[in-house]
Amino acid sequence: AASFVQVEAAASEMDSRGRDSPDDYGEDITESKLNDSKTGKRQRQPKLFGRSGSGRQIRRSSMGGFSFLQNNGLNKHVVYKDMPYHVMEDYMHTLVGTGWMSLLVSIVVLVFLLVTIFGFLFWLTSDHPRSWWDSYNLAIQTWCTIGYGVLAPSNHQQEFIAVLTTFFAFLFTAVCTGLAFVKFSLPYAGMVWAEHCCISKMDGKYCLLVRAAKIHREEKLVDCKFQMFVIAPRASKEGYVMLTSEELKLRNPNPLSMGPSFTLIHELGEQGAVRDLVVGNDDMLDFVIVVRLMAYSMNFQSDVASAKFY
């Protein structure tokens, strides 16, 4: 599940309060699983989420995929009008984007539903008394094109139903085979992103950090390109509010190849998009940070991509 956070970027306030201030640590919100290698004691982690220096609550929520734009405060800046969505308008995107488990369950349910319908038709058009179970088995054997020579259509109506059953069976099998091929052939980067982004000092400067790592060590990614964006509602001079994105400058955004892990670093200067959003801006409650990787996979011999929303 993706998360989006509003993080504290007021470095001067942190320095003025001191590093050991209770507000600088957030063990009640973010738990540390790191232990000190020398003492074995639990380390105190800098607070990533909590209250800013002005006393405003920094909010955090978890949303799956891109649905955060429809389920949080940013949605009030987006108006959906006369945009009905139907599955058949873009069924390819709907089917490919569906998870494997949901897709398999849907296929099994649809097959049993269609077989039940055809079995009911066989049972209604039977010339001689035939049980519902025999008619259902006749529909299954016709659907799977397997015949044992015992159950067979008994009249022209059932022969026509058998033709329809076979036609839909071949059509459904072809669609499912193509869908499985498309889903298996989609290349992916095999990346895992940190659950939260954080602010910490790097080389004496406060930076926004995001950690990424490869799921498989044998994955070979070259010609990598990392990008970081901030998405926030902004008002124009005419008073129109719209969602805008701004790219954040990263240190070493284009490594030739990626090792087991990588850290995205964005320096928080006196002037910057993230700092402007959280310091001295009481009206700004929500914004989204997007990180993206585009690379070439030597394993898939194809371009791959991965992204994370905070």
UniProtKB/TrEMBL annotation:
Q: Which residues cross the membrane?
A: 100-124, 160-182
Protein origin, superkingdom: Eukaryota
Keyword Transmembrane helix part of the UniProt annotation: yes
The residue range of the signal peptide is: none
Question: Basic and acidic residues composition bias: which ranges?
Answer: 30-39
> A single GO BP annotation from the record?
potassium ion import across plasma membrane
Gene Ontology, cellular component aspect: monoatomic ion channel complex; plasma membrane
**Does the keyword Nucleotide-binding feature in the UniProt annotation?**
no
Inward rectifier potassium channel C-terminal domain boundaries: 193-296
Q: Hey, which family's this protein in? A: Belongs to the inward rectifier-type potassium channel (TC 1.A.2.1) family.
Kindly provide the name given to this protein in its UniProt entry: Inward rectifier potassium channel C-terminal domain-containing protein
Q: Which organism is it from?
A: Amorphochlora amoebiformis
